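Entry type: protein chain
Record version: 2
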Amino acid sequence: MLKNSSAIFALSGAILGSLLTGLIGYVSITKQTKLRLVEKVLDRKTEAHEELINFIGVMRTTVQLGGVTDGGELKRCPLALFSRKNFGDFLSEFSRVQNLFDRWLSSDIKREISLFMDYLVHLNEYSGNASDDALQVVGVIIKNDFFTFADELDRYAHVFFNKDMLSLKYKTDSEWSKHSVDVTYQKLAETLLFKNKKKILDIFNAS
């Protein structure tokens, strides 16, 4: 009887040991798989935010045109508005960044991107087939709009690097990614493009 009990206990211990080993192995593999997935998602999110920051640098780049404004500042326009070709290239690059990396960006960033796209759509519509010179003149008037949009995008982008990345926040953001129509028009109305709409249209139409 004792021999049988010892054999049963030994067998039970062996089975329990195997089960525990298997369970520990499963938990370890599951954890490793999750970490690999988190790493891949964070890599994609990091790439998206780095691309955005590179584009923000382009938004902030200006060209000195010579002379000074009525306010005594050097005449500068955004590089994007130095010529029709520059503007077209800028729109294409912006669309590329938006379409390729949209799913990896936060809702706050996507809302600002959407707002800036609405702004560019209006600017493109206003400019029509305007000359390079007209674009430059308008660029001097509205260059601070580009700085303002760039600052907002940069602020939200650095939330990822300073907070989300350090806390390994890997989940994608599925919140609604556009301002309401009322808020959109309210924000656009605060831009130099909209405040100087008549003057800008006159410049474009005269070119």
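Comment: The beta strands are 62-68, 74-78.
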